[in-house]
Amino acid sequence: MTHPVQLYCWHFMAYPHLPADFDEKYDTGWVTVPNRLWDGGKSRGLYQQYIDQLAYADELGFDGMVLNEHHQNIYGLMPSPNLIAAALSQKTKRGKIVILGSLLPLHLTPLRIAEEYAMLDNMSDGRLIAGFAPGSGPETFNYDVVSATSREQFWEAVDLIARAWTQDGPFEHDGRHYPLRYVNPWPRPTQRPHPPIWIPGSRSRETLVEIARRGYGYFLSSRSHGKETARSQQQFAKILEEQGDHYQPFRMGILMSAYVGETDAQAQAEAKDGVWYKNCLKGHLRREGRQLTFGPGIPYIPPEEFRNYLKFSDPTTPLLGDAETWDDLKESASIIVGNADTVYTRIMEILEHAKVGHLLIQFHLGNMPDALARNSMRRFATEVAPRLRADSTRLFGREFPDIERQLAPEMAK
Amino acid sequence: MNILNVRGRRVAVLEAGGGPALVYLHGFADVHGVAGDFQSFHRRLAQTARVIAPAHPGCADSDELDRCGIDDVVFHYLEVLDALGLTRFDLAGHCVGGWIAAELAVRHPEKVARLALIGACGLFVSGTRISDVFMHAQPDRGTDLTTLRTLLFADAKTPAALRFFPDGRGDIEEEMRRYQMLRFGSFVGFKPPYFYNRALRERLHRARMPALVIAGEHDHMVPRAHGDAYAAGLPGARELKIVADAGHAAPLEQPEATAALLAAFLRDGGNNSEPLQSASVVDRSAR
User: Fold this and answer.
1) What distance in Å separates the CA atoms of residue A275 and residue B271, rounded to the nearest whole number?
2) Is A372 strand, coil or helix?
3) Minimal Cα–Cα distance from A180 to chain B, Å?
4) Cβ B182–A311 below 8 Å, yes or no?
């Protein structure tokens, strides 16, 4: 049994038809970006194109397809990732369907997600990876979620879902946020005891402890992969040790974007429009305009954590969305553009220091045309993935001599 | 700063002056909300009253409440008042503090001798929304707080605005107080958006004590209609008093004028008020 890195195709489903003067006229792509900019005519067939790209990833042999949830923005047109997952469950046969994740505090009760995920697990014959997330700033404003209580609400929801999947119903849940008299969801998931659960987090110790305690997978929701990524992996490994558990690569995943071209120069030329398109980079955190992801107006972190943030951060440091040149991007290792050798080498560097087993890679960037996205995916699958699988197997075997034994119970399931 | 132990919770309380007890509940641009100590407005009040200013749960050195909706905060303050041994007192509140003061007064009119509200939120007034302090608390380009200053003050360049809400990384203790105040504000006032209790307006008739309602001339956070609604709904209030050349943070921007209005009310308002409306008139607003 070998354990290569798992390679997934992540699609954000960006809105690709923004007007040329968008940057001058609008200070944000989130929450208040006017929806009259939606061009219904140009957007016909858009979801079909994006769904077909994900199905193509399945044909190419990616280990899975990744979806996530965003609202009222130009960056990700998936207010309901479960709808796309339902379509994929019928169009694909092999890869995992990763929803990373449903934003639990936005739902009236988390039971709805327990039910829909169980349906998806059945519809896909056990291919669902169940991601949950609390949502951040934009959702606070979009859905009137009280940020200060959202984490507490989130963990109650996660625990209720896991219990609803594993404990026979009907049972009563006397929680603070979701008191329910009869918890008894039909259907139950195909995977037993339940689909793998992944939780995204930044570097909050509190979140990592909660994930470790429950034995779930940790997905680092940062797009930059310098030394910080290795530090996050070490931090998570240490917390697992404190819990009497052990880190192995398949406890953790990271996100990056890639474009694979024939040559480095050609790759840059082809990816240029998509990478520098407003909602690819500018949809990210940036200093320009008002940041709606984190800060005093979205006070979800406890005061002592905010004090650390004030002490150790500089409010003038550029963020990923402020990148202006290819060199800026190279430094942050968030969008890797080049020929197959370049992309392989740079991803392998990240794997060597980060030691993570799940790589979630975005191929469609901004307004990238369908044909270019598919070319890049095909080159990755045929020229990059085989080398990454072989070398990561050796890397993990060397770094984690116990990996066979650690993964054995998981395989037995 | 005194730390009061209220059923195991820490409550930070500032106190100054002597005379009749005046409980002061703070707002955003205020003592505890950003300033670590009383400002000239509060010190002016302390010349004629014993000013007692507790920090809201989670603000300054007060502990957060385990459960922190507006009702929980009202019961918290009933316990604070018990701990202070205050059974009857004058009550003033600014901004969110004004909302809490009004909620206290409609529930326990017997405790509140006289009520003063300055730029108070808390009411739902159709078509005039309380502005989004949360979104504007997010600096533009990470450092620029112009819109937050504009919301809280008559003008973004008001000296008090620049003093307490400077661009860039400010004094860490002041930034922390602001963060804690926004966190408290989000517990009580984020949902529904923002800072109101629809039921409060039809309960105002119960607070029959003499009342003073004040608004800054250029309040960009709480629209004038809210002050008018308080003045119309509180049986003991006359018309809304306007502080000229001030925004929402009238106590910081025009400390003398704002304190003078309050002092005059506290001097004359209780003993020498105009006759209250008769019960039958008040009943009109009851269902």
Assistant:
1) 72
2) helix
3) 19
4) no
Tokens (6 digits) for B95: 């901004």
How far away is chain B from the Cα of A390, in angstroms, using its nearest Cα? 44
Phi and psi at residue B141, to the nearest 5°: 50, 25
Among candidate residues B9, B97, B104, B16, the one with its CA nearest the CA of residue B61: B9
Q: Report CA torsion sign: A221, A223, A225, A226.
A: negative
Q: Which of B192, B181, B189, B197 is nearest to B64 (CA)?
A: B181
pLDDT reading at B172 higher than 80: yes
Residue A51 DSSP label = H
pLDDT tens for B182-192 read: 999 999 999 99
One-letter identity of residue A360: L
Q: Check residue B287 and give its pLDDT.
A: 33
Q: Please give the pLDDT value at position B170.
A: 87
End-to-end CA distance of chain A: 15
Q: Is B10 on the interface with A (CB under 8 A)?
A: no
By three-state DSSP, how is residue A73 classified? Answer: strand
- Is B186 in the A-facing interface, judged by CB distances under 8 Å? yes
Q: Quick one: closest CA in A to B180, which residue?
A: A303
Cβ of A327 under 8 Å from any chain B Cβ? no
- Rounded Cα distance between A3 and A395, Å, is 10
Amino acid identity, position B70: I
Please spell the DSSP secondary structure of B231-253, one letter per residue.
HHHSTTB-SPEEETT--TTHHHH
Please report residues of A whose CB lies closer than 8 A to that of B191. 144-146
B179 touching A, CB under 8 A? yes
**What's the CA gap between A42 and A20, in Å, rounded?**
15
Statement: the pTM of the whole predicted model exceeds 0.90: yes
* Residue B159 in tokens: 């000296």
Q: Cα angle vertex A323, ends A138, A73, to 5°?
A: 25
